[in-house]
Each structure stands twice: as C-alpha cells, then as structure tokens.
User: Which sequence fits this backbone?
C-alpha cells in the first residue's frame, strides 16, 4: 500500500499534538511518510520541542516538516490574493474588504491557511488531516484509504457532522445524507432567523453547516487542489456563514466530486477507531468560551500519559 502524508495544525499544545501522533504511529505508523506540522505562531519553545532530537528520533522513519505561520490566523477567514470565494462578486468583495487592502491582513500568505501548506507540498496521492486532540485506537488510515481508492471522484472521507449547529437536524442526519437524501436547498442550511424549517427560504438568511469534520479526515490531494483552484475556496479556511470545511464541501458538490462517511457506510462505530477531544473538552474550548466556560489544558497530565503508555520522557524546553 502506498504511503500517505499527514497535516496537523499546532497552537500552544505540543504535548497533546505529540501524543496524538504517537497513537497514530502505534496504529498506522507504516503507512505514513511525512507529517506536516503547521504552527500558528505559538511560543518558540513549541516548535523547538517538535524539532528536539529525541522527538525526531522517536518518530523515525517519519519526517516531521515543521512550519510557522507568517502571522497568527486563529479561527477567522484568511484572505488570499487571486482566490475570491465564488459567492463574492468582484465589486462587493472590494467594497466589503477595502480596508484590508491597506493592512497586513490582506492578503495573507496562502500557506497560512491551515492544512494548505501540506496540500500544496505533499507528493502523495492522499493526505490525512487531523486535530491535535485525537487518540487513535485502530488503523484509521487504512479504513479511510479504502473508501478513497475505490472511486477517483471521491475527494474527502471522514465523519459527516456539525449537525449540532444545523437547523435541519430534526429532519436530517448523516445516515440520510449518505443514502442520497437531501433537505431542501442543501447544502445551504437554515439560519437562526428561520422559524419553520419546512418553509426554509435561503433569501431570508442561511448557513453552510454540512461538512466532513476535519478533526480526522482524508483527502484525495489531486481533487482537493482542483476544488480549491476552480471552487475558489480553501479546505481549512473560514468563510461567510460557514465553518471550516463547510464552504469547501459546497464547492466539492458543485464541481461533481464525491464525499463519504465511512462509519455510516460500513456501520462502524467511530469510537472503535479513535477518540476526539479525549481530554474531556474540545481543543478550541481551551482558548474561548464555547458555552460552558473555558477548559483547562493539563499539559503535565499528558506528559505523564506519554511516559506511561509509550515509555518516552518528553524533553523540557526552557522558555527564552
């Protein structure tokens, strides 16, 4: 089986990221060549830990490609020159963003879009995309690869989701989407203004909620590049009325490509393969209040777990 590459975003939680990669190596190590770690301007000691000889040695024969953004992106739309979303007309785009033309926010470095550096630079046919708070329990790489390799038009596989935000959640679910059913006006979904989802009118406001959750997804690299070029939207970017990956999925569908939730298709349990947010909270909730207050990131707990499960003493990097 041909090897794949991995893309993972980093921000101030190197212990969690390293633990994620250790569990991935344990379950799918022989299938991976290069891991692209894209750091969003963390403290220097974060990338120093990834580059530490002991860490590099542990992950051999993997290659760790470590890159730092030109500026912090966070969770917001990244503007890239010559890549205007299809929903933005030229004049409207200029008028709504004219201030950005004169600031460092416009345009961004294309590589600052999460996962895009890996998508642009990998020489593999398939790229695994993941969060830094995943614990792998079983060979997820092979499971995903099987679905992508069966159909040349298949462009992304992973959990269909974000139903917790979708106004169609009462009448739709991943099982229905995978069976070919679609709610009205899909992939557009009702906004908070919608009173009656059975009479949903996009002109009154809409979201784009349907997506493959990017915390563990895999893309066909050739197709992903084409979708970005012709659809004018990056997989890892935020867009109007759309969270990460949702607008890109809209363009995927419009261009005639396919997507798949292999867990729904094969009637498998996600928890059989991996645990997302295994620390008891989402990774993003460490930085922002998502409704239940900010979560506490316990670095030492993960350091201890790395020692316990993998017998590895994580190096200590002194802050400068």
Assistant:
């Amino acid at each position: 089986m041909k090897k794949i590459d991995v893309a993972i975003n980093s921000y101030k939680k190197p212990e969690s990221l390293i633990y994620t990669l250790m569990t991935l190596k344990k379950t799918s190590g022989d299938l991976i060549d290069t891991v692209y770690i894209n750091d969003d301007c963390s403290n220097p000691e974060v990338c120093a830990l990834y580059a530490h000889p002991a860490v590099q040695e542990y992950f051999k024969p993997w290659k760790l490609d470590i890159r730092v953004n030109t500026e912090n992106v966070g969770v917001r739309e990244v503007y890239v020159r010559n890549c205007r979303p299809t929903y933005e007309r030229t004049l409207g785009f200029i008028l709504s963003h004219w201030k950005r033309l004169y600031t460092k926010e416009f345009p961004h470095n294309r590589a600052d879009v999460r996962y895009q550096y890996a998508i642009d630079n990998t020489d593999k046919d398939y790229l695994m995309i993941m969060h830094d708070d995943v614990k792998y329990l079983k060979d997820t790489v092979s499971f995903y690869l099987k679905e992508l390799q069966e159909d040349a038009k298949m462009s992304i596989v992973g959990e269909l989701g974000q139903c917790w935000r979708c106004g169609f959640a009462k009448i739709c679910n991943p099982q229905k989407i995978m069976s070919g059913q679609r709610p009205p006006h899909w992939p557009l979904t009702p906004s908070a203004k919608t009173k009656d989802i059975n009479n949903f009118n996009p002109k009154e406001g809409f979201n784009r909620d349907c997506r493959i959750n990017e915390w563990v997804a895999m893309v066909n690299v050739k197709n992903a590049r084409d979708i970005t070029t012709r659809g004018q939207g990056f997989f890892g970017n935020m867009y109007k009325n759309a969270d990460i990956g949702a607008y890109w999925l809209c363009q995927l569908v419009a261009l005639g490509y396919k997507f798949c939730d292999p867990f729904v298709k094969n009637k498998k349990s996600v928890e059989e393969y991996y645990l997302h947010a295994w620390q008891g909270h989402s990774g993003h909730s460490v930085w922002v209040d998502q409704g239940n207050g900010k979560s506490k990131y316990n670095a030492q707990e993960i350091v201890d777990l790395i020692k316990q499960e993998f017998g590895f003493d994580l190096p200590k990097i002194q802050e400068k």
Observations:
- The domain at 4-161+211-310 is CATH 3.90.550.10 (Spore Coat Polysaccharide Biosynthesis Protein SpsA; Chain A).
- The radius of gyration is 20 Å.
- The chain has a mean pLDDT of 90.
